[in-house]
Amino acid sequence: MKKFTHFLWWCAGARIDVLEKCPSDHAKYFGIGGTILFTALMACFAGGYAFFTAFKSIPFSIFFGIFWGGLIFNLDRYIVSTIKDDGKSSISKIEWISASPRLLMAILLGFVIATPLELKIFDTEIKTVVERLKIEEKEKLIGQDSSFNNEFNELEKRRDKIENDLKELTNNKSHLTENAGAFYEERKKEIQIDVEHKQKELNAVQAQVNGLHTLYINAINDSLSSSEIAKRKSNRDFQISIRNNIRQEKKELDDRIIELTENRGEAIIKEEQNIDGQISQLMSEKEILLDKIDQMGKTRDSKRTNYDNKVQNYDGFAAHIEAMSTLTKEKSSIFWAKWLITCLFIFIEIAPVLFKLMTESGDYDKIIAKERHFTEVEQKQQISNLNDKINTDIKISTDKNKARLDAELKGNKKLLESIAIAQADIATKAVTKWKDKELKKLEKSLSHIIQSNSKDDFEIINKFWTKTQNGVETTYCFKNGKSNNLLFQEDSNIKVGKWLMVGHNRIETELENNKKRYEISELNETQLTLTEIGSNNKLILNST
Questions:
Q1: Are 308 and 106 in contact (CB under 8 A)?
Q2: What is the pLDDT of residues 466-503, one digit of tens each?
Q3: What is the distance between the alpha carbons of residues 506 and 504, in angstroms, rounded to a whole number?
Q4: Are 541 and 518 in contact (CB under 8 A)?
Q5: What are the backbone angles phi and psi of residue 492, rounded to the nearest 5°?
Q6: Residue 455, Cβ density class (10 Å: 0-12 exposed, 13-18 middle, ≥19 buried)
Q7: Cα 147 to Cα 173, 174, 207, 297, 354, distances in angstroms
Q8: DSSP secondary-structure letter at 543?
Q9: SS3 letters across 142-197
Q10: Residues 463-475, buried b or exposed e (16+ Cβ, 10 A)?
């Protein structure tokens, strides 16, 4: 019993090790697990029956039933185990909203489970309707061959008529042989009746001819138009031709009476021959007709056999669903019974969710909530630790990069100093040569040159002047030589420009096509202050 209880707890999605510590919640999760288990069993039966109805295979039906039951069991267990309540006996609006997707899923599962079971409950009534649907389906299939069936029916009617005509002709021939006198009188009487009809018809047409002839004569006497005279003449001639035809037909009937009266034996023989000719003609037509009927009959039998096979297979799951629909439309009692069963299964399906929402929180729920909170806090702590570690790694990497950059700057500074010393040596030699050359020029030019190379100028050149702003160090070096180069370094970037002493205390610089003029505001061994002419911006540089 303990194992079964643990199994139902597991079915309810509860943790057995925690639930054992909470006796007050044992019955609650026992009931929820039992509902889920028995719902799955009903789903197993419903799925197996539905599969058997469709495929008529017991092994596959058992397998599918187990599979379907397991699927429904897993869905129900998931729905119940993931639902969260606020721990109160009433269901709040927020709980209804959060639980609505699971409730809709449970209602859908209720419909799915109930339908095959309803088909099984009303199986006897449904089979009766299915048989009726088979007949209707067969009639519908036969109705698709209406032109073929109409042709076949017409051939059968023609065959029956030929058989009746043959029977009548055979009886007439027999009657003619056995009662020659009676046949003579009967035949004569028939011809005389025809003669009387023809005489009446002839008298009526003759009256029309007489009237039309009178109209024709009057038109001539009255001197009417030629077209009117021709029209009246045409009408009279047309009736005359009809009258002559009737006279000829009456004469033939009179001749037949005379012939019948004078040659009774020959008339009987001719009549027999006439009957034999008709019988022979009908027999030939009957043989052709029977062959055609036989061929079409075989085609019809083949089609109907095919229809029977199709109708016989009209017994699957869809046919039963259609029969159930027809049955509920015809009988209101079955309609209400079906919906009561459906509602019952829907209630069974949503019951665990509702019960869990309406049940107050117990010891088990509190323990689970505490563990969930502990896990959540622990995860947040791990995330925080990971963020701290990442920030520390970034800081260490930044410090390393800064140290490497400082080392590069120092190396570049030494390189610049070496370059400056070399350029100073070159500039000294160049100046010496230039000086010797210029001494040969006029005294005025010499005096200007001497003034240009004053003491202040000498104190600025060939020194490294630095400025630090926002943690960025900038270095200037005013080289003295033929080209008066200006070396400029910011971080690890080195640029080369031009500079020129203008007057006694002014400097002009050109760096990347950007020309500026400065006035030397202050100059000593450690500091050089330059004021930009026009903006009064100060550039304070320190000697290194």
A1: no
A2: 888 777 788 888 887 656 788 888 777 778 888 888 77
A3: 6
A4: no
A5: -105, 5
A6: exposed
A7: 39, 41, 51, 14, 63
A8: E
A9: HHCCHHHHHHHHHHHHHHHHHHHHHHHHHHHHHHHHHCHHHHHHHHHHHHHHHHHH
A10: ebbeeeeeeeeeb
Residue 397: partners with Cβ closer than 8 Å, 6 or more residues away: none
Tokens representing 345 are 């299964």
List all residues 6 or more positions away from 207 whose beta carbon is below 8 Å from its beta carbon: none
The structure's pTM equals 0.38
Residue 532's CB is within 10 A of a number of other CB atoms, namely 14
CA pair distance 178, 42, nearest whole angstrom: 87
Q: Are the CB atoms for 381 and 130 separated by under 8 Å?
A: no
pLDDT tens figures, 255-299: 877 776 665 556 566 767 777 888 888 888 888 888 888 888 888
CA 134 to each of CA 191, 305, 343, 453, 526: distance values in angstroms, whole numbers, following the listed order: 60, 14, 31, 124, 115
Q: Using CA atoms, how far apart are residues 148 and 292, in angstroms rounded to an integer? A: 13
Would residue 493 be called left, alpha or beta, if left means φ above 0 and alpha means ψ between -120 and 50 degrees?
beta
Sorted by sequence, the CB contacts under 8 Å of residue 337 that are 6+ apart come out as 122
Nearest Cα to 79, choosing from 112, 104, 113, 102? 102
